[in-house]
Structures are given as structure tokens and as C-alpha cells.
Amino acid sequence: MARYLVTGGAGYVGSHTVLALVQRGDEVVVIDDLRQGHRGAVAPGAELVVADVADRRQVAEVFAAWRFDAVFHFAALSLVAESMAQPLRYITENLSNTLTLAEAAVQAGCLRFVLSSTAALFGYPDSELMHEGSRLDPVSAYGESKLMAERGLDWADRVHGLRSASLRYFNAAGADPGGRLGEDHNPETHLIPLAIDAALGLGPALTVFGTDYDTPDGTCIRDYVHVTDLVDAHLRVLDVLGQGRSARYNVGNGNGYSVRQVIDEVSRVCGRPVPFRTGPRRPGDPPVLVASNALLREETGWRPRHSSLSEIVRTAWEWRVAHPRGYRGG
């Protein structure tokens, strides 16, 4: 039996990862300050430590209390638009917290580290599909903060032997097919849950940011990956780290959907229209971001099992209908 530390394990992707680890019989300790996470999202059987990853003393106490086989680091600021208004906060927190955690792991002799990274570090695409060797040129402070965190981990590998896997998400979406977990952010910024809430009348009309991009229908195109497929990638890269090497992987389905296509699919799955209005472009939004997942497939055997937009939307819809107040219940 292995034991893992999961920061941000009460959040969206983190909680789904904790559930998968607990289900396969691993011991899990979660660090989450619950600013954005939810106590109710932490799977039974996992140990929750309410603490801030920025607090070196609290992090050191966790490493002193348990011995871990690896660290999964999800805790981070992650709103692109907010990062453009508060760039120094994003770069400071996301970089500092990653390195604080990495330093504690090295000192404790835990030399496997999985980073929740992002496709935002690619900026504007230089090819139809983004691959691991594509130009790294973030156009948002959020993307820059994650790129700097990856570079810090590169140095931790060179000097201290900390093997790290950076998983560059494209757009995590959907919910646990068993209905146990879902997406519940405050504020919510992701397209699919916002469209669902608009259709259900749980939120305002959706705003489509920009209709004049150089895409077939003028709206941004993104690659959506089901959250449980994303979790599967996290578990698979542990074997890569066990081989004594670090790695960087893109995690996406390899195809993209426009904002208008997502709206149409949400309307179809929900059986009701999605009210929306148009607005100006947001700073830092590239027109197209689609992943090449060839390297992840080749080196880990990963395959998306929930790849259709219909299934992604359906699982998100079913969870939201069953949990209209999210983890607050009622």
C-alpha cells in the first residue's frame, strides 16, 4: 500500500484524484485551506489537513507526521482573467507554493512530484496541435506562473533528484460518472458548468467572450478532457517517475470544440436552450488550444475513456441536477 500527499485535494481535479487513489486502496493525506475546496468533496478514508501550502511550518509538520511515496500538487490560483489583473499575486503564489512544497518533499526524501500544470503556458499556438515541444510563450500571468513552476522543478531534478511530471491540462470538464463528485467553483469560470447553470436557471445568461476570432464560427476553440481521464493520467505518470526520470505531458482529447458548439451540445443534452449574450474578448485568450496527446499515449498507455463532448456534458449535467447547490447541499 502506498501513501500520497495531495494538495488542493478538496478541489475539482484534486478531489477526483483522491477518490481514485482511495478506491484502489492507497492511503491519502489532503492539504487544503478550503478557500476554494469543499470538505464534502474529500473521499471518505482520506485524511484532510486544513492548512495553507504557503505555510512552511504546516507543510513541514505534515511531512514529519507521514512518509509519502509521491506528492500530487493541485493547489494554485487558476483564473486567467484574474491573473491579468493581479499578475504579481499569481506569479508569487503559484511559484512560491510549488517550490515550498518541492523543498519540503526533498528534505523528507519524497522524490516523486506530480504538478497540475496548464496548456496556458503555450500562449498562441504555432501549430494545429500543441505538442510538448511547441513554443512556450504564455500570454497570461497564470500561464507564466505555471511555466516558472515547471522550470523550478527542473532545477530540483538536476540538483536534488526530485523527479517531476508536469501535466499540462487543456480543459478539465465533466464529473464522476458515479455521481459522487462534480465541479463546484466560486466563482465559476468554466464554460460547461456556466452553460448548464444558465440552462437550469441557476445562474445568469452565459457570456460568450469574443465572436470575431479566426475560427469557423468566430468563437474560441478548446480541447475538453473528462476529469476522470485526467485523473487516470496522474496515476499513470507515477510509473514514469518510478523509472527515475522527469516528464512533461499534454493531457487532452486531441480535438477541439468551439464555444458555440459547446452551447449547442449543452442545449441538446439538457433539453432546453442555453441563454447567452456576446461580449468582448478576454485578455490572454488564444483563439485555439488543442492538444496532441501522442507522447502521453506512447509512454504511459493512456487513452481517454470518456472522450465525447456528449458524455462530458452529460456527466456534468447529471451531477449539477442532483446537486443544485453544489457541495452546500439542499
Automatic annotation (TrEMBL):
Question: Which GO MF terms does the UniProt record name?
Answer: UDP-glucose 4-epimerase activity
- State which pathway it belongs to: Carbohydrate metabolism; galactose metabolism
NAD-dependent epimerase/dehydratase domain span: 5-252
Keyword entries, A-Z: Carbohydrate metabolism, Isomerase, NAD
Task: Enumerate the Pfam families for this protein.
Answer: Epimerase
Q: What domain of life is recorded for the organism?
A: Bacteria
Give the protein's cofactors. NAD(+)
Cited CDD domains: UDP_G4E_1_SDR_e
The kind of enzyme this is, by top-level EC class, is isomerase
Q: Could you say which EC number(s) this protein's record lists?
A: 5.1.3.2
Question: Glycoprotein among the record's keywords?
Answer: no
Query: Which reaction equations make up its catalytic activity?
Result: UDP-alpha-D-glucose = UDP-alpha-D-galactose
Oligomeric state and interaction partners are given as:
Homodimer.
The family line of this record is:
Belongs to the NAD(P)-dependent epimerase/dehydratase family.
Recorded hits in NCBIfam families, A to Z, give:
galE
Official protein name in the record: UDP-glucose 4-epimerase
What is the native source organism of this protein?
Roseomonas haemaphysalidis
